[in-house]
Amino acid sequence: MLFRSEIIVVAVTTKEHRLSLLSPTADRAYGGGSGPSYLEFLIDTLKPHVDAAWRTKRGRESTAMIGASMGGLFSFFAAWSRADVFSRAACLSASFWWADRKMMHVAQEMCPVLRPWLYIDSGAALSHFEQDANLRDGFQHTRAMCKSLVSSCYEPGVNLLSLAYAGFQHDASAWAARLAIPLQLLFPRR
Questions:
Q1: Residue 127 dihedral angles phi and psi, to the nearest 5°
Q2: What is the pTM of this model?
Q3: pLDDT of residue 134
Q4: Phi (first) and psi of residue 165, to 5 degrees
């Protein structure tokens, strides 16, 4: 008999203290930097609770992180620093600009022994001359992060997939419109 696996999605709101909780390090202008403590809470408190409450596949190959904007930055940080827990991460419009691109520097300096599979995307302005940051959606930072990953230890199409969506802004409706793509890629049907 063949059993079909379902995906369990655990969504945690970070409406309050979002910048602090989701930032892996402090930023000179915005502060923050509580990401490591928040990641510890997710791994040591929330994940064991979920594993106890539902029939889960507990290994790293069955555990992923997904987020948008600061959540995308945090998802990268979580998978990069705790690849023993998260084998995959999807980073939608990730705030890779945070703290003078600190995570890009981290990616260039070292490659984790366990490399998480990464999906990284962003919107992109329809014009190269666009000045509105929300319309540009951090496209240049996303490209720079992908270049950093490829220069250190990642191979596009193997353990890194990066997409750009022309005309998509930095907002929840843009992320909702494309969320199905990374969800299918994180856990493809076998």
A1: -130, 140
A2: 0.94
A3: 76
A4: -120, 100
